[in-house]
Specification:
Elements (H helix, E strand, L loop, with lengths): L4 E4 L5 H9 L4 E5 L10 H11 L4 E6 L4 H11 L3 E4 L5 H11 L3 E7 L2 H5 L10 E6 L27 E4 L8 H8 L3 E4 L4 E3 L2 E2 L1 H13 L1
Parallel strand pairs: 1-2, 1-8, 2-3, 3-4, 4-5, 5-6, 6-7
Antiparallel strand pairs: 9-10
Helix pairs in contact: 1-2, 1-7, 2-3
């Protein structure tokens, strides 16, 4: 069985992007949520998007963003997919997919089996579901290094392709893949030395460990 595809999220510098490409990750994530320590502005993302073009797939991460903000980011970064990490409904996800003509990934926060069941609502609205750990109210919607009970996914067979995020690190990603059988893994804080500061050695170690699972 081939290993999962890999997304390194929250990339904001050229060295981190080059490390991600060198480690043979499949996707790079650019964060367009201003409160996040991983936020990239238009100038940064234009440079990073151009550097990434043709070398790695570019995913934009948005939290309840409007069409104007998404459109500007798509154009600046040359995005290949849009990841929705807020309270976007299936109707909103479908609208974004139709408007921009790009695959839509919908992140769902998970604390219990009922949260996973919500993926069915997006069967006609999204292209991939990303199961992430539910964060405390009043905090960021992701990138906090929290995980959930992965055994909730051991028998999951949903209507869409799906990925796993939340607390994944070089030390545990192999276990997560073996336990869930997931085909895509996503990390951000798990490959950092400080919030928003990517560690090139951790990026390499994460990608290696994911492939060995």
């Amino acid at each position: 069985m081939p290993g999962p595809t890999i997304k390194i999220c929250g990339i904001s510098t050229a060295p981190a992007l080059e490390a991600t490409i060198r480690a043979r990750a499949d996707h790079v994530g650019f964060n367009f949520f201003p409160p996040s320590p991983r936020f990239v502005d238009a100038r940064q993302v234009a440079e990073l998007g151009q550097r990434a073009a043709g070398r790695i797939a570019r995913v934009g991460v948005f939290v309840d963003a409007g069409d104007t903000a998404i459109g500007e980011a798509v154009a600046a970064a040359g995005l290949d997919a849009v990841q929705l990490h807020g309270e976007e409904t299936p109707e909103r996800a479908a609208q974004i997919r139709a408007r921009f003509g790009l695959p839509v990934w919908k992140a769902l926060p998970v604390a219990s089996a009922s949260d996973i069941a919500r993926a069915d609502l997006y069967r006609d609205a999204a292209d991939l579901i990303l199961f992430d750990a539910k964060t405390p109210k009043g905090t960021l919607s992701g990138g906090m290094g929290l995980s959930f009970d992965w055994s909730l996914l051991t028998a999951y067979r949903g209507p869409l392709a799906w990925g796993l995020a939340g607390g994944l690190t070089p030390a545990n990603v192999d276990e997560a893949v073996r336990l869930t059988g997931v085909s895509m893994v996503d990390t951000s804080s798990g490959v950092e030395s400080a919030p928003g500061v990517k560690d090139v050695d951790k990026i390499a170690a994460f990608c290696k460990a994911a492939r060995l699972s």
